[in-house]
Amino acid sequence: MTCILCSATGPFRPRGAKGGYEIQECAACGLVQLVPTPTPETLRALYEGSSYFDGDGGSGYSEYESQEGEYLATFREDVRRIAEFVPSGRVLEVGCGYGYFLQCAEDAGYDVYGIDLSPTAIKVASERFPGRVFCGTLEEVPEIHEQQYDVIFGSHLIEHVTEPGAFLESASRLLRPGGVIVLVTPNIKSLLARVSGRRWVSFKIPEHVSYYDPTTIAELLRRTGLSVLAVDAAYQYYALPFVAGRLRELLHPVSRLIPRVENLSLLRTRQVRVTSGSMRVLATTAAAGDVPRV
Q1: What is the average pLDDT across 84-100?
Q2: Mean pLDDT of the chain
Q3: In this model, does residue 293 exceed pLDDT 50?
Q4: CB of 211 within 8 A of CB of 279?
Q5: Stretch (H or E) spanning 152
Q6: Quick check: helix, strand or coil at residue 77?
Q7: What percent of the chain has pLDDT over 70?
Q8: What CATH number is given to the structural domain containing 139?
């Protein structure tokens, strides 16, 4: 077993088990990851499956299409944060799904492009962005190598990557000088992760192969020649019944005693901004100062 961040071969501290995998922490750098590391073939089969974006396959997203409004509200926050560092330019999203982030970025005036491993997602996204979204990895899509980008964005992406250093090196080569890479990823040291324990929603096995915190994500970026600009707590918007349902799962069986007020007509469609136990990190190829902490 080798740490996918620092390449240490052990020892590793046990953090639990789920779905036939051990969850272990590298004693050398602190990264938490699955043991054994899922093969790229195993993961790709998940993403290329037709059920990944409809929740029927036991992995991927549930209610993805029906939550478009919530995703758009979430991604508008990401775009506003990006604009503080890069107010305009060309954006590439890796793992673009149906194109919700691309829509927000285009609405803000950016020139947008995207890639994803899911043929189903690219088919949908192509209806919004014909000729601008492609199926495959960074290395597999020649069209995206024809230009450089001011921003490369990946939301809930890096935790899926079995060779994150190689991925970031490839992404950096597509950046213009001073360009920015933006990653949103679960923070295993977040309050939600600590409170949830083994029920943490981000323990999605085997697709989430690694679990970062502000220190380990900064170390990963540093090792690939990037300078961290900021690490923020990331928030997401959800309809109130969806949030209440997740809380009931977390608090079960005590939750059976709590009235289901979220199903009242006045509350059923209300969006709420909640912590997802995730963080947003912005990094650049240029020199940067000290790293802000979540």
Answers
A1: 98
A2: 88
A3: no
A4: no
A5: strand 149-155
A6: helix
A7: 85
A8: 3.40.50.150
| Domains in the chain, number | 1
**CA-to-CA distance for 165 and 222, rounded, in angstroms?**
10
22: in domain = no
Confidence of residue 58 (pLDDT cuts 50, 70, 90): low
For the stretch 230-249, pLDDT in tens is: 999 999 887 766 666 666 66
Nearest to 178 by CA among 143, 144, 229, 112: 229
Closest listed residue to residue 143, CA positions, set 167, 171, 113, 106: 113
In this predicted structure, what is the pLDDT of residue 256?
56
Q: What whole-number distance in Å separates Cα of residue 241 and Cα of residue 274?
A: 13
- Predicted confidence at residue 218, as pLDDT, reads 97
**Count of Cβ atoms closer than 10 Å to residue 27 Cβ:** 12
- Residue holding tokens 């995207």? 114
User: What element of type H or E holds 182?
Assistant: strand 175-186
pLDDT at 224 over 90: yes
Q: What span, in angstroms and rounded, lies between the C-alpha atoms of 24 and 22?
A: 6
The answer to the question of residue 9 being in a domain is: no
Calpha distance 129→106 (Å, rounded): 10
Burial class (CB in 10 A: 0-12, 13-18, 19+), 137: middle
pLDDT value, residue 272: 81
Residue 15 lies in a domain: no
Where is 222: in which H helix or E strand? helix 214-223
Residue 238 lies in domain: 62-284
- Tell me if 76 is assigned to some domain: yes
Handedness of CA 199, 200, 204, 206 (dihedral sign): negative
